[in-house]
Amino acid sequence: MDGQTARLQEKLERLLREAAEVSVALDRADGTIQGVPHYSVIEQRAHELGRQLSRRIQERHMGEIVAFQVSKACCPRCGRRCEVTRSKRPVTSVDGTIALQELEGRCPFCRKSFFPAAGDVGL
């Protein structure tokens, strides 16, 4: 593991510890957990925090993938090169709904929208 990777790993560990501390404090402050809870309640809250993190990571990864793509793609109907823009749409993942970024083309000749395949835009 190089220096950059080790620093990132340490930062992630620190942020995860901090997120756990804040989550427990928030559960107590808003009354979600009172007194001595059953362990299943603690486990459920931990899983919810994990699902929140998963959704953020998915959104971030897809945002980065879309950000580095070309700005034109061929219309699947007529083959002309068309402008491609980024758009967001809700997608349900195993961890809940996320705002997925994707590329959307609009052909002015066919007057149709299309979603270029990964190979068509350099993925």
Strand order of the largest sheet: 1-2-3-4
What structural class do you assign from the helix and strand content? alpha+beta
Give the distance, in angstroms, between the N- and C-terminal Cα atoms: 27 Å
Query: How large is the radius of gyration?
Result: 21 Å
Order of H and E elements: HHEEEE
Which band does the percent of strand residues land in?
Answer: 25-35%
Total beta strands = 4
Q: Give the % helix.
A: 40-55%
Which outline best applies? elongated
What would your notes on this structure say?
The chain is α+β, with helices and mostly antiparallel strands and 123 residues long. The protein contains 2 helices and 4 strands. The protein has a 4-stranded antiparallel sheet. A hairpin with a 2-residue loop joins strand 2 (81-93) and strand 3.
Quick structural summary:
With 123 residues, the protein is an alpha+beta fold. The protein has helices at 3-29, 39-67; strands spanning 72-74, 81-93, 96-107, 112-114.
Q: What does the secondary structure layout of this molecule look like, with pairings?
A:
Elements: H1 3-29, H2 39-67, E1 72-74, E2 81-93, E3 96-107, E4 112-114
Antiparallel strand pairs: 1-2, 2-3, 3-4
Task: Identify the notable features of this structure and list them briefly.
single chain; 123 residues; alpha+beta; four-stranded antiparallel β-sheet; elongated
